[in-house]
Amino acid sequence: MPSTPASGFERDILDQPSALETIAGTAFPAELAKLDLRNFDRIIFTGMGSSDYASIPLELALARKGLPVWRLQASRLLETPQLITGRTLLWATSQSGRSGEIVALLEALPKANRPTVVAVTNDPESPLAAGGDLVIGLHSGSEATVSTKSYLNTLAVMFRAAALFVGRSEQAAIDEIAEAAKSLRTRLGEPVDAIRSIAQRAVARPNPRFALIAGGVDSTSALTGALIMKEAARVAAEGYVGGAFRHGPLELAGESLTAVLLGGSSSSSETLIRLAGDLAPTGSLVVAIAPANLPGAEHIPVPQPDFSRLVHTMYSLQMLSVELAKASGLVPGEFRFGQKITATL
Helix H segments across the chain? Predict the structure, then answer.
């Protein structure tokens, strides 16, 4: 981001390396390492928006260990409280700790036979922190509008927790977070000409729309990226996981569509290669934010290691949102109808 940022959203983007360094250097609660996940009949991850999507890497890591993992948005969990029992580990994430659904969920928990609650939040004085048996702080500082620092720090928490629970080295995870912060800081000073060109051409298309497609841990980037593009640039964007785009949304292909393919894991690469090859001939603008280019796609390179890839992918999507907003004559990240904390149901 070589030019002087004009919006709070852009300033928050610049602060992300420092926020990552803070969370890398912050100790986790000692009680977290003492949790034996085998003692719970189900592990439920819940949150809203990017707080929900950021738990995908940890959800996948635990599921691959054969643990009984669920991920439900807090609004869905409010409709199915029977899922929560005294043997449930409820892992609730809310950057503000004050989201309407999270507060309502905490209030609805039974006094007897209460679940164990892990609270992940940026506000130690929030209702979520007060309702948690174990609290993990995000230490991401304040944000002007759209989630930036808090999202990446939530990812960092999930990445470290995954290492802790599946027997990998937590220190190695901390080192990768620190390395991602360092490489992101370097990238902040580099030109964004390629991203700007993509944004300008995408906006110039008739009835422009965007599809962000990924599998595995990169699904968090597709879902969060689409949400950020809607918030920060007011464009029609949707995130798709795995092969879901082929089941109906493929009919969106054509000159109006910009398809952003995200990935790096071997399990999803073949799917993305085939999809890029199928979309390019339709006249869709195909963009690959990935370690390697895909046939028929314009390439925005990102590192291969999981956490660094997720960080650099999100920065690329943030900058795409900034440039889309500017190409449309908008202030990036400026809210018209929403607000930073969604406290109402």
Answer: 8-14, 16-24, 30-34, 50-53, 56-63, 74-79, 100-108, 127-131, 149-166, 170-188, 193-203, 219-233, 266-279, 306-327
- Whether 71 contacts 56, CB under 8 Å: yes
Structure tokens at 111: 């006094």
Q: CB-based contacts of 66: which residues, under 8 Å, 6+ apart?
A: none
Q: For residues 254 and 285, give the distance between their C-alpha atoms in angstroms, rounded to a whole number.
A: 8
| Long-range Cβ contact pairs of 324-329 (< 8 A, separation 24 or more) | 324/199, 324/202, 324/203, 324/229, 324/232, 324/233, 324/235, 325/232, 325/233, 325/234, 326/199, 327/199, 327/200, 327/203, 327/204, 328/203, 328/233, 328/234, 328/235
H/E run at residue 261 = strand 257-262
Cα distance between residue 157 and residue 55, in whole Å: 9
CA distance 317 to 225: 6
Radius of gyration of the chain (CA): 20
Q: How far is CA 278 from the centre of its chain?
A: 27
Q: How confident is the model at residue 263 (pLDDT cuts 50, 70, 90)?
A: confident
Task: Render pLDDT for 88-130 as a digit per residue (tens, 0 to 9).
Answer: 999 999 999 999 999 999 999 988 889 999 999 999 999 999 9
Tokens (6 digits) for 249 = 């949304």
Q: Enumerate the H helices of 64-169 as residue ranges.
A: 74-79, 100-108, 127-131, 149-166
**Which among 257, 270, 256 has a CA at the least distance from the CA of 215?**
270
